[in-house]
Fold:
Amino acid sequence: MNGGTVIRWIARALALLGAFVALAPPAAALAGTPLATCFRHALPHERAVAVLADPRGFDCTSDQRSAGPGDYWVLAPRLPVIARGSLIRSASVWQDAATLHVRYADGTTRATGFTSATAWQRLKLGAVFELALPDHAARPVALLWHVRGAPVTRGIVIDPRVATPAQSTRMEVAMAAFYAAFAGLCVALLMSNLALGAALRQRFHPPYCAMVLCLLAYGVSSSGLLGQLTGMDNNLRLRLNTALLALALSFAILFARRFFHPRVFAGWVGRTATSSVGAVLVTATLYCTLMPRASHWLDAALTASFAAVAALALPLLWRGWRADTPHARVFMLAWGTPLAFAGLRVAQAAGLVRWNFFIDNSTLLAMALEASCSALVIAWRIKLVVEERDAAREQEMLARLLADSDPLTGLMNRRSFLREAIGRAEPQLLVLIDIDHFKQVNDTLGHDGGDEVLRVFARALLAVVPDDALVARVGGEEFAVLTGAGRDDLPDQILGAVRAARMPFDLAVTASLGSERGTIATEAEWKRLYRRADDALYAAKTAGRDRVRWAAAA
Structure:
């Protein structure tokens, strides 16, 4: 797998995502018909019946975000034809309590609602409040929300819609599929990278796994599932969303710092990254502990800190693209689309883009893309690391082989022979072999011919010695064989193999052999055994060469 392959895989994933978005049914088909609303401050002791009877003072043009914190009336004065059993859906938002008053055509008013503590009973996947209209024979003609304790950082009643039970079910199934896919992706990424981290112990794996774990927890919380399962206070769940998202973003930056070459984060970029992450953590902590006090200031500070981290991505993308390492370029390309989603989310939080359900949930999509693309690049980097490690091991093995072997014959050299020989407590047979009159062979054939004689001689030795024997060239024309005692016939077999070997130009080459048995558990024992075998070799040469002598006879 090379850089082009990784880029193609990322492009396919983004194309698949684009096809999914293009083919997805419109929001209205899934979630119902949107309702236009107006709002105004709620005065103490005001009653819904009186407000519905005299709906003056409502603002139908301003953005709800422009209102300050407090209690509000939100009116939907014109309704489509609503069938009995219909549902009213709106996005989850910070509030202490909300009551929906329904005015019917016959003048009757009915109410339903929840508090922050009981909101989980009305919470659907996608973090949407869903209220069933009270059953009544007449049709509804107006809806009026009474919202208490609203900090209005995102709005008062966000994206209210009228939906049928069938539309609600379709939306619930679609969101269940989306969140299940997200959770499955997170679990798969987490398990694979935990295993890789345990095996490879790369510094970037712990923050990556922590990021994915925070994303998984954020998905469970932001989807509303955590509230459904635990009955958690809705405002507390929103606090938890902020904390988990801040942690996920912080771990993402830490992962990037450990993944890239230090020069990507060198200088002001590294200092700014540290400051930005610190600002995110501080503002998120203040947001979670102080909300809803100073809500607009806290929300603005939190949005600014997230925007600062998103803006930091631009120099990181540029430096990563200019980096020499190819995986850094692919990684930065992979982060481009998720950062675009994140930018949309920050723009919506800052009020630059109107609230949209899909943008509101794009955080999960952006982070899922980032985690998936990062996983591809991690896999590619690990592949490069493994290839580099294997190449280094091959070079090390080759260097060790060259250091431990005779380059001419391929046999062990003296150093490796001694390392393997000394320490054997069992009785051993040592055979020293010396080519007779090798200087004359060199004078006759030249050095190249002499080298070929040495190679043929080595092959002749290897052909007759046991598989577990140590065979080494310990001198210019001197060889040594070490094997377990009990092979007294081995010296004669070696002598016969040398006599039978076909030498260059059919030159007759003979050898003298000295043999001895003994233990070599220590270096002193080795020296004694070698000296006795060498004495036997000298005796063989003195006796006329081309023969075997044992140390006892010598």
